[in-house]
Write a structure and sequence with these properties.
- The protein has 345 residues and is α/β, with parallel strands linked by helices.
- It has helices at 50-72, 91-108, 117-123, 173-183, 190-198, 221-237, 241-272, 287-300, 316-328; strands at 10-15, 21-27, 30-37, 81-87, 112-116, 128-129, 141-146, 151-156, 162-167, 276-280, 303-305.
- The strands form 2 sheets. A 6-stranded mixed beta sheet has the order 5-4-1-2-3-6, with helices on both faces. It has a 5-stranded mixed beta sheet with strand order 9-8-7-10-11, sandwiched between helices.
- Helix 8 links the parallel strand 10 and strand 11 (303-305).
- Helix 1 (50-72) runs parallel beside helix 2, helix 4 runs antiparallel to helix 7 (241-272) and helix 6 runs antiparallel to helix 7.
Length: 345
């Protein structure tokens, strides 16, 4: 299994950890294509239904991979390695991507590379785009990884030397967004709807509980309870309270979550004397968080790295870039390695 042109390593990335089926092609670290097929059916249930997700992946995986290869302008025989998300995620969904990746790699007699989904989010900052002038993070840097399932501060020493120095002890920030959105009757996923409504609201209108957790860890369960009780008590006095105050509720909730996230990030930056700061994960698409990170970064002398919105959600480009770096050190996956539902960075 020797690369045909060592100066041009082509990696196919496959992502299927939750409800997005994605395939991407990279030439070295440069993105050639990134295709994502989302599953709208879960909106009817207010959350991802694992069985429905795995079935949809089975339907989507072949056309998505085929489209990614064609958009990249290559033939499948040009591919040097297949990188796939091995975990963490929904096991049924992971099995679809894992099985396809191994079969594809076996058929072409090329290496198969397993990728940690959380590491891939962090490494999305190293994806290069054709014709775009970019600056990449230098080591070490801190990455605030925030999504529906994770809220972590990661110390990144190199591409694969990552240490979680702070994380949520209960709920994740994205989960807080979604559950509070549900209380207000907003569609799933709730984060983007809250972000949109918050733009026209007063973020000082309501005040919710702020956790007092040691070191750099997070907690969002108290915030959710505080939000629920505030809404419940107000609705008793005024049944139209939510509709009349939806924008202010969203703005106040979003501001509180952002303050919680950045307070610990600032503390970690000062204690470790690290001023290269990045964010990643689904919640990093939140415009309020992005704006506030830039604003505070200017005051604190940070060099801030914010991913393109396309690289914040689950996508195969981040899997491919992680796979590329593993390829360079010949870190390949055995064909009998199973996916895993849970794992840390």
């Amino acid at each position: 299994m020797i690369t045909k042109d060592k100066d041009k390593i082509i990696t196919l990335g496959i992502e299927s950890s939750c409800d997005d089926t994605s395939a991407a092609v990279l030439m070295n670290n440069t993105l050639l294509s990134n295709i994502i097929a989302s599953q709208a059916i879960h909106q009817d249930y207010g959350g991802v239904v694992p069985e429905l997700a795995s079935r949809a992946h089975q339907q989507n995986i072949i056309p998505v991979v085929d489209t990614a290869i064609r958009r990249a302008g290559i033939e499948k025989t040009d591919i040097d390695a297949v990188a796939f998300t091995r975990g963490p995620g929904l096991l049924g969904s992971l099995l679809v991507g894992t099985s396809f990746a191994k079969s594809f790699a076996t058929a072409l007699n090329i290496p198969c590379i397993d990728v940690n989904h959380l590491q891939a989010h962090v490494l999305s900052h190293f994806i290069a785009e054709q014709g775009v002038v970019q600056t990449f993070p230098t080591f070490p840097f801190l990455c605030l990884l925030v999504s529906g399932g994770n809220s972590q501060i990661v110390l990144v020493r190199n591409y694969f030397d990552m240490q979680i120095i702070g994380q949520t002890i209960d709920d994740a920030a994205g989960e807080a967004f979604d559950k509070c959105a549900k209380i207000m009757g907003l569609p799933y996923p709730g984060g983007p709807h809250i972000d949109k409504l918050a733009k026209t609201g007063n973020h000082e209108a309501f005040h919710f509980a702020m956790p007092n957790i040691a070191e750099f860890d997070y907690s969002f369960s108290g915030l959710k309870t505080s939000f629920l009780y505030t809404v419940r008590d107000q609705v008793k006095a005024n049944p139209d309270f939510i509709e009349q105050n939806k924008a202010d509720l969203c703005a106040s909730l979003q501001k509180t979550i952002i303050d919680i996230l950045l307070k610990k990030l600032i503390s970690a930056s000062k204690k470790l004397n690290i001023t290269n700061i990045a964010i990643a994960g689904g919640v990093s698409a939140n415009s309020g968080l992005r704006d506030e990170l830039i604003s505070r970064g200017e005051k604190l002398g940070w060099q801030v790295f914010i991913p393109k919105p396309a690289f914040t959600t689950d996508n195969a480009a981040m899997v491919a870039i992680a796979g590329y770096f593993k390829y360079l050190r010949h870190d390949f996956c055995a064909i009998d390695e199973p996916p895993f539902a849970r794992v840390e960075i």
